[in-house]
Design brief:
four-stranded antiparallel beta sheet, 73 residues
Length: 73
């Protein structure tokens, strides 16, 4: 991910995996993941609803089964 190249030297930023997908973690918590040709973000609180509405984003369902993940889109 190019984001890794840009953020890799920042304090608290690390690279890892979530469900076998590349991700960026901030102090050990997943914030951004790569899924196919998409970038998946984790947001909570009021910012989550605003972004979903403004960007016509969709909640992420990595398995394609069951309900999507509530904090990821």
């Amino acid at each position: 991910m190019r984001l890794v190249e840009r953020l890799g030297d920042e304090e608290g930023i690390s690279v890892g995996q979530m469900f076998g997908k590349s991700c960026i973690k901030i102090y050990g918590n997943v914030f951004i993941a790569q899924y196919k040709d998409f970038v998946v973000f984790k947001l909570t609180g009021s910012s989550h609803a605003k972004v979903l509405a403004a960007m016509r984003a969709e909640l992420w369902n990595p398995s394609g089964k069951g309900p999507p993940m509530k904090a990821f889109f």
